[in-house]
């Protein structure tokens, strides 16, 4: 059991942090939503109703959307774009690394898609990118629906016209919500790419060795 916890400690800790954060968001979001309903003279809602509300869906999935977008783009762009000296980039002077070699189906512990070959292997070669962009598409779709639902609820309170899903796709509110999150994600990726050239964190695989030169990719 100790070995399982040790081997999966990074993912477990971040999953626990996620759970704490989503619970905190839900509790505070429910309170904020009900305060707004009270101000408008409307009936307050319970937790189950809130979880299907536009307010919760929009606030949750607009953030997930931006996370999956930046990770998907980062994975794709690091295939052919470089930043010399960054631990987040391949070496532009020697771009063919271990990740570029062709899979060996005869390797004893190779994943089953490698042993299967054919179309399964072709998909598996790009499965990380496919998964990230699929999660982005799903998150954007739920964000779109949740934002539209929240917008229409507000319009109804003000006795103004509501919009269909297609109409709302042209609403600046939807894209403002997206762009405000996208820009922060792209900035954070830019920061780790550039800061890892000059700054170090001993013990972290996201950093080069402390004594590595700025121009080195790995310090080897």
Automatic annotation (TrEMBL):
Chain ranges passing through the membrane: 128-146
Keyword vocabulary terms for this entry: Membrane, Transmembrane, Transmembrane helix
InterPro entries, per the entry: DUF6766 (IPR046657)
Composition bias, Basic and acidic residues: 87-110
Residue ranges, annotated region (Disordered): 86-111
Keyword check for Transmembrane: yes
Protein name (Swiss-Prot/TrEMBL): Membrane protein
Organism expressing this protein natively: Flavisolibacter tropicus
């Amino acid at each position: 059991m100790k070995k399982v916890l040790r081997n999966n400690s990074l993912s477990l800790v971040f999953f626990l942090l996620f759970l704490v954060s989503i619970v905190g968001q839900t509790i505070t979001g429910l309170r904020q939503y009900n305060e707004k309903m009270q101000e408008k003279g409307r009936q307050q809602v319970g937790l189950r109703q809130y979880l299907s509300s536009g307010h919760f869906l929009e606030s949750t999935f607009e953030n997930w959307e931006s996370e999956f977008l930046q990770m998907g783009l980062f994975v794709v762009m690091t295939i052919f774009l470089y930043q010399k000296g960054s631990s987040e980039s391949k070496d532009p002077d020697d771009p063919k690394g271990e990740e570029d070699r062709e899979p060996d189906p005869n390797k004893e512990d190779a994943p089953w898609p490698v042993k299967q070959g054919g179309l399964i292997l072709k998909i598996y070669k790009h499965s990380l990118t496919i998964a990230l962009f699929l999660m982005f598409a799903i998150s954007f779709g739920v964000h779109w629906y949740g934002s539209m639902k929240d917008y229409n609820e507000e319009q109804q309170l003000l006795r103004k016209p509501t919009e269909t899903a297609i109409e709302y796709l042209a609403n600046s509110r939807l894209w403002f919500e997206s762009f405000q999150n996208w820009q922060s994600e792209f900035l954070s990726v830019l920061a780790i790419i550039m800061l890892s050239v000059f700054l170090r964190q001993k013990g972290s695989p996201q950093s080069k060795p402390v004594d590595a030169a700025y121009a080195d990719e790995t310090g080897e």
